[in-house]
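Example 9 (inverse folding). The structure is encoded as follows.
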């Protein structure tokens, strides 16, 4: 079952590798199109079904949940671990500190880990495998 479906215009065909410019007419909530405006904003997809694709056509691409799971784990796990580390270490190293202090330090490490993941992903974004499913 597909988890992500997008439409886009075929920009380049290089064998089975097809470059698509996604339809970004509406701002996505996650980045408000910031990533598409600063980077090239193109997707690379495969034509597994052998569709007769030509430059300029509007196509629909999909990706599976299994392809996005590793990216989700690497994006979400470090901040959670940062919070737990900060909270637990504060309780162990400063037993007189209250829960508010432990929570504050945990939140500081949560945001620090989230920023580190954001910076790391900006330099080397994850690869998502897209498949062209139909021509529109």
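The amino acid assigned to each position is listed next.
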């Amino acid at each position: 079952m597909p988890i992500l479906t997008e439409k886009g215009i075929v920009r380049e065909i290089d064998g089975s590798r097809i470059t698509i410019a996604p339809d970004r007419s509406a701002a996505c909530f996650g980045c408000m199109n910031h990533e598409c405006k600063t980077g090239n904003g193109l997707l690379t997809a495969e034509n597994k079904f052998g569709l007769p694709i030509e430059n300029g056509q509007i196509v629909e691409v999909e990706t599976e949940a299994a392809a996005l799971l590793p990216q989700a784990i690497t994006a979400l796990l470090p901040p959670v671990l940062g919070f737990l580390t900060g909270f637990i270490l504060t309780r162990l190293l400063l037993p007189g500190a209250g829960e508010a202090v432990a929570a504050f330090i945990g939140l500081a490490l949560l945001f620090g880990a989230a920023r580190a993941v954001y910076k790391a992903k900006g330099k080397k974004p994850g690869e998502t495998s897209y498949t062209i499913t139909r021509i529109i």
